[in-house]
């Protein structure tokens, strides 16, 4: 492997007591919001099996990774860029950005703009779909957050948010299906509730509050978020600390945060409010309609929560270990959507390093 492709940053500094296995998140470090400064930590003082770092980096490079970060207690332990990318490269989050929308909905509810148990038509207006008025009124914001709207997932373009594409199939709350159009409507819900564009509200209430950069870009009917890896890591750190950034609550509703990051319904136990959850006894996957027994990512810690996007965009948050892990890049495996077998394979490699 050529060294030019291993342009990773490993800083050997910090104190050993920064790496205790305590989950006391009061000890978390937060980088300043108006600076590129981000404290690093000494991987040799983590208790990890450091000889496994190089094999891990070689593996992620081979799998088309462009950016890879590991934060411990908020500090950077590993920061790697390759395959033509560097720290300034903005990459798409794809469906991992659903977590950004779920968080923003929580802020909007806390500020009194909406109630997730109200009909989404309260904020979208009537005739946002091809459903009858009674059918529209039976779909709540909560159904959009939990992928249980009951909208027809057999339409040709599952990203299409035009009324002609949004048809009735199941009663709301009776069936789980990973329907992108139902999710995308959360942007319009926030905009209608807050009285300003979703992008403006998101930037003001979330992005700028924690020093992220990036933007939402239209891609057909979809609107993925693009940012650098450090911005994704900042959002992961915010969720590691349950919505509080360096003592400042960004999402003040602790109950909403709890509900967002735990099983939201009984149809897919491994799904919260647009977040994927590990450690449950069953899960469902995008595109498919059947349930599978077992954990979503068997090799990963049970308390892992994740934003997972097309082409293997990964945001892992592991409270028990005070870890945030980011992977951005091209698809690593044949599976293109959300969770993939790359998750379990990657965690097999990570476990050899992080012990």
What's the short version?
The chain is built from ten helices and 14 strands. With 355 residues, it is of the alpha+beta class.
Strand content: 15-25%
> What's the CATH class label of the largest domain?
Alpha Beta
Class from secondary-structure proportions: alpha+beta
Give helix and strand order, one letter per element, not per position: EHEEEHHHHHHEEHEEHEEEEEEH
Largest sheet: 7 strands, antiparallel
CATH H-level superfamily title of the largest domain: DD-peptidase/beta-lactamase superfamily
In the CATH scheme, what's the topology name of the largest domain?
Beta-lactamase
Number of strands: 14
Give me the Rg, rounded. Answer: 20 Å
Compute the average pLDDT: 92
Secondary structure elements and pairings:
Blueprint: E1 7-9, H1 53-62, E2 65-72, E3 75-81, E4 91-92, H2 98-110, H3 121-124, H4 133-137, H5 141-146, H6 180-194, H7 198-207, E5 215-216, E6 225-227, H8 229-240, E7 244-245, E8 248-249, H9 254-260, E9 276-277, E10 282-284, E11 291-293, E12 305-309, E13 313-318, E14 323-329, H10 341-353
Antiparallel strand pairs: 1-3, 2-3, 2-14, 4-6, 5-6, 7-8, 9-12, 10-11, 12-13, 13-14
Helix pairs in contact: 1-10, 2-6, 2-7
């Amino acid at each position: 492997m050529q060294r030019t492709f291993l342009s990773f940053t490993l800083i050997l500094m910090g104190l050993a007591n920064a790496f205790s296995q305590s989950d006391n998140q009061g000890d978390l470090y937060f980088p300043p919001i108006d600076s590129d400064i981000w404290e690093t930590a000494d991987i040799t003082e983590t208790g990890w099996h450091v000889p496994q770092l190089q094999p891990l980096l070689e593996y992620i490079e081979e799998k088309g990774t462009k950016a890879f970060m590991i934060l411990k207690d908020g500090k950077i332990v590993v920061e790697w860029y390759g395959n033509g990318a560097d720290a300034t490269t903005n990459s798409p989050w794809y469906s991992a950005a659903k977590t950004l929308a779920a968080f923003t909905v929580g802020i909007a509810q806390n500020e009194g703009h909406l109630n997730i148990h109200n009909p989404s038509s309260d904020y979208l207006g009537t005739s946002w779909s091809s459903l009858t008025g009674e059918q529209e009124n039976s779909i709540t914001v909560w159904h959009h957050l939990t992928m249980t709207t009951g909208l027809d997932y057999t339409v040709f373009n599952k990203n299409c948010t035009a009324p002609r594409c949004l048809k009735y199939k199941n009663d709301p709350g009776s069936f789980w299906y990973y329907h992108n159009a139902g999710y995308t409507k959360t942007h319009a819900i926030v905009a209608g509730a807050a009285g300003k564009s979703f992008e403006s509200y998101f930037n003001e209430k979330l992005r700028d509050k924690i020093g992220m950069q990036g933007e939402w870009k239209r891609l057909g009917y979809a609107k993925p978020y693009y940012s650098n890896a450090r911005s994704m890591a900042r959002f992961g750190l915010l969720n590691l600390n349950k919505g509080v950034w360096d003592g400042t609550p960004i999402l003040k509703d602790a109950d909403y945060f709890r509900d967002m990051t735990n099983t939201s319904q009984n149809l897919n136990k491994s799904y919260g409010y647009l977040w994927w959850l590990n450690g449950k006894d069953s899960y469902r996957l995008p595109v498919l309609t059947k349930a599978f027994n077992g954990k979503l990512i068997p090799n990963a810690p049970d308390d892992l929560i994740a934003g997972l996007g097309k082409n293997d965009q990964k945001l892992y948050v592991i409270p028990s270990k005070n870890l945030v892990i980011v992977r951005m890049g091209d698809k690593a495996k044949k599976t293109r959507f959300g969770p993939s077998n790359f998750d379990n394979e990657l965690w097999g490699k990570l476990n050899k390093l992080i012990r």
